[in-house]
Amino acid sequence: MKEIKLRNFLIGNNNPLTLMGGVNVLESEEMVMTVAEKFKNVTDKLKINWIFKGSYDKANRSSIDSFRGPGIDEGLRILEKVSTSFDCPVITDFHEPNQAQPVSEVCEIIQVPAFLARQTDLVVAAAKTDAIVQFKKPQFLTAPEMENMIKKCSEAGNDKITLCERGNSFGYNNLIVDTLNFQILKNFSYPVIFDVTHSLQLPGGLGNAAGGRREYLLSLAKAGISQGIAGLFLEAHPDPDQAKCDGPCALNLDMLEPFLNQIKDLDEFVKNQKDLDIR
């Protein structure tokens, strides 16, 4: 299994839990700093390796009227402030090849969004940076097809890759998570992250926005962590019902510590078990 060094810790399927946690979209600097401070305090207390997540542009919103974010310039300024203020690495997604380099100058991990993960120019642009590249598994692809993204990225010169499971389309306005996908992705030997937040989406479920099933966050997160993976991708909000994007899927910020306490306990339990070769 590959391990990827990031600052003072290793991201790997056999390593202690890595948390990619923060906000969906950068609604305001004040809100972002509030959420980041909470994540910092809780992860320091629980001794969890933490990477702040936030999007400067939600370029794939359902409605033209939906809030997209502050844009790349202001967004990167806010992300840099988070990184400096809380001494943490940051991750964000990008949407056009020419954004890869400036994003990588602030973010130590850059994310290729699920809808765009097959775009070769985007993958190559990400690979040519010094950043770790995270691929969200598209909702419309099988886990074995992720090998194509891995090959594109590694052949373009970057082998620092993480793979992120986020569910598969199941009929209309629904996603499901096939837990076998975690093992299939692990077979590529790269770190696997579980995006529990977006796996609970009901895409287009509100007509002009995605619905969600926040009440199942803990149970679904446990299902993913039980598979012995590198980490969890989690979005939180001080008032999810008023969030400007994906509020129905976001964890209430007040619940962060008890939520992560259970997740860390399970991660440690699973990784202390001996693997069995059952064939």
Short description:
This protein is of the alpha/beta class and 279 residues long.
Structural account:
With 279 residues, the protein is α/β, with parallel strands linked by helices. The chain has one domain: TIM Barrel. It has nine helices and 15 strands. Strands 3-4-5-6-7-8-11-14 form an eight-stranded parallel barrel, surrounded by six helices. A two-stranded antiparallel sheet has the order 1-2. It has a two-stranded antiparallel sheet with strand order 9-10. Helix 4 crosses helix 5 and helix 8 runs parallel beside helix 9.
Strand count: 15
CATH level 1 class label: Alpha Beta
Give me the secondary-structure category.
alpha/beta
The fraction of residues assigned to DSSP E strands is: 15-25%
Q: Look up the CATH topology.
A: TIM Barrel
Shape: globular
Tally of domains: 1
Strands, helices and their partners?
Layout: E1 4-6, E2 9-11, E3 18-25, H1 29-46, E4 49-55, H2 72-86, E5 90-93, H3 100-104, E6 109-112, H4 120-127, E7 132-136, H5 146-155, E8 161-165, E9 168-169, E10 175-176, H6 180-186, E11 192-195, H7 196-199, E12 201-202, E13 211-212, H8 217-225, E14 231-237, E15 251-252, H9 256-271
Parallel strand pairs: 3-4, 3-14, 4-5, 5-6, 6-7, 7-8, 8-11, 11-14, 14-15
Antiparallel strand pairs: 1-2, 9-10, 12-13
Helix pairs in contact: 1-9, 4-5, 8-9
